[in-house]
Amino acid sequence: MDQLETLQSLSEQMELEHAEESRGEPARPACFTPKARPEFTEREKRAAFVHPAQLPNGKQIKLLKTLLSSACERDCFYCPFRAGRDFRRAAFKPQEFAELFMKLHQSNMAEGIFLSSGIAAGGANTQNKILDTAEILRNKLGFRGYLHLKIMPGAEKGQVERLMQLADRVSINLEAPNTERLARLAPNKTFIEELFRPLKWVEEIRQSQPAYKGWKGRWPSTVTQFVAGGSDESDLELLTTTDWLMKNVRLKRAYFSAFHPISDTPMENKPAVDPMREHRLYQASFLLRDYGFDLEEMPFVQDGNLPLAEDPKLAWAQQNLQGKPLEINNAERGELLRIPGIGPKGADAILRARKLSKLRDLAALRKLGIVAARAAPFLLLDGRRPESQAMMF
Ligand code: SF4
Q: Which contiguous run of DSSP H or E holds residue 344?
């Protein structure tokens, strides 16, 4: 395998990793047609797998999502890289990968990196390889762009601290919401010691050390990912853990990857999970993070799952606001956020606009970016219900 074939091989399963995707929809690997320098052949351009990604600051970039190595000594039941699965493994040495990435970067083919790895000779050893790669990129080759680095199960606290000095974002995938569920997915990973504790370390370091020690003077954000439906867990279990992490260790975001079976794994006959479940989990996690909802307010049904057919915010509003519409001209920000069709930006726009004049019709809301037809059944405009106006839109 040459370097480009190695990169292709290491990148092609990374659509399973949802990190940096903006709407919870899996992005397809994309081959950009950049203004490449002449040294890249057509074949090389086709081989460079980068994903369109949205960074934490909202900026869109071309993100190279890849592994350093697809050899792994663990045997997680769902994973295409698990030990013993029959496929051709590939790996880069840190220097080799860093130099190849810089070539892609300088040719405008990739602007940032999401770097993970299969585990070989222990988590700490593998973490060192990721750290070495980051050190070369930052300190030898002068790369100042976006770097999202994976914390390996089994990493040491000092390694996590060093990662945090080099990365814009760090993450470790919990995969399942608790110890019992993880045992069904990855019997050789320990939930508390290997996965949960590093997330706590990140927050301890952020709390106890000054931010100037972080990359560009700030500490990286943290995210995690779950295999939704992989361990027959409920949405309640997934969102309970997500909510705790967001409140207690400032988790920026949880990603949910709907389980789908991979051939030649112990879970190859388990049915795929409806991708709509992933979407509902994202919606609910945003309600917890940005809209002031509590876990108890989520419209779970008896089995602890969210209804697939209904947006959780709409379901809440139908139960709680149908007979008690909110007056748009008086409602507080937290109340505005309860109305379907109004997000954080829309709520702020309403607060600004109503300082100037009363909002009296749906057209005024639409100008503020509100999905007026969606909001109409749950609000009053200067004392009047707008249903008849909603029909016009
Ligand atoms: S440790 Fe990671 S790469 Fe290895 S089998 Fe488990 S999920 Fe896959």
A: helix 344-356
Q: How far is the CA of 205 from the centre of ligand 1 (A)?
A: 26
Ligand 1 neighbour 14 (Cβ under 6 A): no
Distances, alpha carbon 344 to alpha carbons 15, 295, 361, in Å: 29, 19, 20
> Is pLDDT above 80 for 33?
no
The residues, ordered by sequence, that sit 6+ positions from 38 with a Cβ below 8 Å of its Cβ are none
pLDDT-based confidence at residue 121 (cuts at 50, 70, 90): very high
Confidence class of residue 387 from pLDDT cuts 50, 70 and 90?
low
The per-residue pLDDT for range 100-117, each reduced to its tens digit, is 999 999 988 899 999 999
The three-state secondary structure class of 280 is helix
- Phi, psi for 212 (deg, rounded to 5): -65, -15
Q: Is 177 in the pocket of ligand 1 (CB under 6 A)?
A: no
The residue written with tokens 């940032």 in the block is 112
**Do 253 and 285 contact (CB within 8 A), yes or no?**
yes
Is the CB of 79 within 6 Å of ligand 1?
Answer: yes
Ligand 1 centroid to Cα of residue 152, in Å, is 10
Residue nearest to atom 5 of ligand 1 (CA): 82
Centroid of ligand 1 to alpha carbon of 74 (angstroms): 6
| CA of residue 332 relative to chain centroid, distance | 30
- Over residues 330-371, the pLDDT tens digits come to 999 999 999 999 999 999 999 999 999 999 999 999 999 999
226 lines ligand 1 (CB under 6 A): no
Q: By C-alpha distance, which of 366, 367, 368 is closest to 393?
A: 366
Q: Distance between CA atoms of 242 and 240, rounded to whole angstroms?
A: 5
Q: What class has domain 3-297? A: alpha beta
Distance 268 CA to ligand 1 centre (A): 16
10 Cβ below 6 A of ligand 1: no
Secondary structure class of 120 (helix, strand, coil): coil
Q: Give the model confidence (pLDDT) of 176-190 as tens digits.
A: 999 999 999 999 999
Mind giving me the DSSP string for 178-196?
A: SHHHHHHH-TTS-IIIIII
pLDDT, one tens digit per residue, over 159-171 is: 999 999 999 999 9
What CA–CA distance (Å, rounded) separates 216 from 168? 9
